[in-house]
Amino acid sequence: xxxxxxQFVFYYFAFExxxxxxxxxxxxxxxxxLYGAAESILxxxxxxxxxxxxxxxxxxPMFKKxxxxxxxxxxxxxxxxxxxxxxxxxxxxxxxxxxxxxxxHILTSPxxxxxxxxxTAPVVRED
Length: 127
Hints:
The protein has helices at 8-23, 32-50, 61-71, 77-93, 95-107, 110-120. It is an all-alpha fold and 127 residues long. The longest helix has 19 residues, at 32-50. The protein is extended.
């Protein structure tokens, strides 16, 4: 994305900062920051998807597969961007939740915790 628009990361940060307004269904006139960031993201992603996949070897496999499957339906790049942005946002937005539940699972499973301690013992010091 950065090759298409170097500001992409900043658009995403702005979107993340204002995404709560979407969850509360704020109208566009009260959430111009959210809608502006979303529009910039989708424009950048659309331009990215206009580039043939063969010229984008750095695409993450999950998104490459998603794009391939979506393209079988024949939508324009803008629609591919909309669908894959939801995957992108969902995977990034839930990372802290996934980490919490992973740690909770490890700490409540003595055999898993013992296994992880054994596996990491060669590189972890106790001091």
